[in-house]
């Protein structure tokens, strides 16, 4: 333990001084340094390399529970606590949480729908409940707005659209993608806030045309759309925070990578038995 401490501080203090302070011989320290690593140390170093590989593949988005799950699925026997201990010793931390919220305009005279979800974000079958919202992304060229539709049974992003303006067309484009991806289901509850985009004549007509059921949060109550707020929060923390996006085109590629490559097909969900949304849906039909 004392030799390891000396080694870690070699760049800051004299070896002779540290050996005297810790009451160990200089020759003993150099003999210790020349010894080959023990099998246990070699095993721990190999595991550290595997953890770093997954951590980098997740782009620092995953903490110890998801990394441990991925490693075990790959055939490595390692506990969450071991992964957490190694990550802490190496200084590898998942991206930290911050609060973000795009404000839609709910001060309008358009008709609103009742809240049909009433904070119940659990679905018992596919395409029973969808939630939606708009968030925003800053680039050096200006703002870019992202509308997302989340399917609550599998937690899969089934529709999304990007625009320089926060308009009714933006949310209609996201809903249209969801409809075609899910093969035009009927009777789905589609929940959102009371923003003017969701209350617009165009969006409401699209819902009625496809026999979808509109549901809306109470005015100013973010908890009424908590599942979608949680997704937006994770997206901002894990995909946007710390990134400098020079152009809107670069941001669009960044969003595609996060949603279609990472979130839907790689990110493990505890609610889904540590499966990603794509794998969870494939398991249902297998």
From TrEMBL:
Keywords: DNA-binding. GO terms for biological process: DNA integration. One of its GO terms (molecular function) is DNA binding. The keyword DNA-binding applies. The keyword DNA-binding applies. Residues 122-284 form the Integrase catalytic domain. InterPro entries: HTH-like_dom, Integrase_cat-core, RNaseH-like_sf, RNaseH_sf, Transpos_IS3, Transposase_IS3/IS150/IS904. PROSITE patterns: INTEGRASE. It comes from the Bacteria. Belongs to the transposase IS3/IS150/IS904 family. Involved in the transposition of the insertion sequence IS3. This is Transposase. It comes from Methylomonas koyamae. The lineage of its organism: Bacteria, Pseudomonadati, Pseudomonadota, Gammaproteobacteria, Methylococcales.
């Amino acid at each position: 333990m004392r030799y390891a401490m000396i080694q870690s501080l070699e760049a800051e203090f004299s070896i002779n001084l540290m050996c005297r302070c810790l009451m160990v011989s200089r020759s003993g320290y150099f003999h210790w340094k020349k010894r080959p690593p023990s099998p246990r140390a070699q095993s721990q170093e190999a595991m550290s390399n595997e953890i770093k590989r997954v951590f980098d593949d997740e782009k620092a988005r995953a903490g110890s529970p998801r990394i441990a799950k991925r490693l075990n699925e790959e055939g490595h026997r390692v506990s969450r606590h071991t992964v957490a201990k190694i990550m802490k010793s190496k200084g590898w931390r998942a991206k930290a949480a911050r609060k973000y919220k795009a404000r839609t305009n709910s001060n309008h005279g358009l008709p609103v729908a009742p809240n049909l979800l009433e904070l119940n974000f659990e679905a018992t079958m596919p395409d029973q409940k969808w939630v939606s919202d708009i968030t925003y992304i800053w680039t050096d060229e200006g703002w870019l707005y992202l509308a997302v539709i989340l399917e609550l049974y599998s937690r899969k992003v089934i529709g999304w659209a990007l625009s320089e303006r926060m308009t009714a067309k933006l949310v209609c484009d996201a809903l249209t993608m969801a409809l075609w991806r899910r093969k035009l289901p009927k009777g789905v509850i589609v929940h959102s806030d009371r923003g003017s985009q969701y209350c617009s004549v165009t969006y409401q007509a699209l819902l009625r045309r496809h026999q979808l059921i509109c549901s809306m949060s109470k005015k100013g109550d973010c908890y009424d759309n908590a599942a979608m707020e949680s997704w937006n929060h994770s997206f901002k923390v894990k995909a946007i925070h710390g990134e400098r996006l020079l152009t809107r085109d670069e941001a669009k590629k960044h969003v595609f990578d996060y949603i279609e490559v990472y979130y839907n097909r790689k990110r493990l969900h505890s609610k889904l038995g540590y499966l990603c949304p794509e794998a969870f849906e494939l398991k249902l039909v297998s």
